[in-house]
Amino acid sequence: MARASKRHKTAAARAFPQLKKAPSGIAGFDEIAGGGLPAGRPTIVCGGPGCGKTMFAMEFLIRGATEFGEPGVLMTFEETGDEMSRNVESLGFNLPSLVARKKLFLDYVRIEPSEIQETGEYDLEGLFVRLQNAVESVGAKRVVLDTVEAIFSGFANVGMLRAEIRRLFRWLKDRGLTTVITAERGEGTDLTRYGLEEYVSDCVVSLDHRVNDQISTRRMRIVKYRGSSHGTDEYPFLIDKKGFSVLPLSSIRLEHKVSKDRISSGVKDLDAMLEGKGFFKGSSILVSGTSGSGKSTLAAHFANETCRNGKRVLYIAFEESSAQVTRNMRSVGINLGQYIQKGLLQFRAWRPTQHGLEMHLLRIHDLVDEFNPQVVIVDPITNLISANLNEVHAMLIRLLDFLKDRKITAMFTTLTTNRGAEEQTEVGISSLTDTWILLRDLELNGERNRCLYVLKSRGMAHSNQIREFVLSRAGVHLLPAYLGSGTVYTGSARLAQEAREKTETLREQQRVEEKRKEFSARRNVLESQIAALRSELSSGEAEFARLIRRRNERQQRVALDREEMGKMRGVTPANQVVNS
Amino acid sequence: MRTPKVKAKPPKAPATGGATNATLELRLYVAGQTPKSLIALRNLKKICEEHLQGRYRLHVIDLVKTPQLAQDDQILAIPTLVRNLPQPIRKIIGDLSDTQRVLVGLDVRPETT
After folding, report:
1. Torsions phi, psi of B64, nearest 5?
2. Whole-number pLDDT of residue A575
3. What is the least distance, in Å, from the CA of B71 to any CA of chain A?
4. Would the pLDDT of B31 be above 80?
5. Residue A130: which of B70, B95, B98 has the nearest Cβ?
6. B38 interfaces chain A, CB cutoff of 8 Å
7. Is pLDDT at A409 greater than 70 in this prediction?
8. How far, in Å, CA of A97 to CA of A84, rounded?
């Protein structure tokens, strides 16, 4: 029964009163670690040289002292307090001031094997005395030991050292000190060179600094976290002028507030395709197309329109410099320079190969923090897809989450190469975006023409038409879809088709005209024939009438003649036959 | 110079021989009355009396009482014997049970008479 209920609740494990956490204050880390490091327990941070172990530990300590009211003790075995102060100075941390204000206690443990002679038994009680003194003098809640393994180089008695380290960790735990112990990565699969993870079973964080294709990337992973749920992936992280940051927010949450407001794309005809209103504010737009299909131009229109409305735009270009883009966009009638001057448009151009993925992400992150834009344009995002699509995918998710969280409308352009490979890249990222505008080149009759269509746009009834996309000095226009006889015509083919249609109609008209003339001529002929016939007929009739009249006259005359003859002969004209 | 908890032998008459004529300034760091510390102290006293008659000064420092000194003097192992003078500083850790090593560590040639 208890078991059942427990299983029931694991789904909502977060609701459980969990292990107490000590927030590290390191951007992004606390989210992955479910709140921070285990409070009152030791954590091992391990990794190779230069991976950022010390930075992690320092930030944990300093943020604890400055932000969480937990004074700390820093015990270094490799660098002196001065060196340490200088190291973190660049991050804006002032160690001497913290020390002076009793927020921090520095103790540099110098181990010089050449000075030391061993005779007989000893232990490391001195270390405990120092630690105790340090903890008491500032009332420390946090301790950093960097790098405690150094004692292995100073003393010969390894058995004793191991026993002492075990005792040390016990000691720290008993006093409820949240401790970060840094350790060098061991050979092969060993997490640490001296197997310290054996003694610390609460939390182990592994840092990694690797170089892929000449680009360095830093990764972090929580190998183990007893009694707590945690992100198990490898997370990219960065160390820059703001310190240590794990990138940049976890992608666990999907709780962005959505907006019903619209933002114009800057191209009227395109807005018309999107319910006449444009994109949703805070949505993400993917513009994909082959090279030269007008992606950047579309992006520039969007930037232009947004700036025209007095909103800020961050334009990140990976291919062209700011000057180049502004010059080029002048050719389509867009003057971005004025907005740069007004401070509405911030252009950032850098080479995609300049940094690893996470550095890109963090730079964008930082720029957004600084500039607080309403629109971010990344042109093109494809250039980041150098090696691993999965990484890009992960990065994009993070970036999109971050931007959505801030209700920033994001437009990414992607370059698609040829028909086969394009699907893959696009599928990789297109599912993440809300609106997907596809630019296509249609090759027909010896020319290329640009076509545009809205492949998807979440949450609106967008047009399904393929429109011809024309770049002119006056900007982008979308010609209405030519719906001829079932096919889409573009460019000159479209003109040809239109001309063809025109001549066709003309010819038809001419034909009708001809027919009409022909017919009227024919009618004239026929009518004249009819007239002729009619006159013939009437002349026939007249003759016939004359004939009859003549015959009648003759008959009358014959009759008269007979009468007169009869009169003369005295005979009545009976039974006489008259030949006519 | 700090001389907190001092349990010293006053310097005696000038030395009659040895590697160096200079007076050795020795400090033994312990942390409370632990068995190891007691053994070390006993061993040290013995060595001093046998080999360093009159040319040493010894301070025993209990870090439990003056913990700050552990940091100031870079003490890690307990017990630690430090030769502060003459320079350079030398450290001998352990219970000092090996007399020869202690003497080598202190750079003192054992007296052979």
Report:
1. -65, -35
2. 54
3. 6
4. yes
5. B70
6. no
7. yes
8. 13
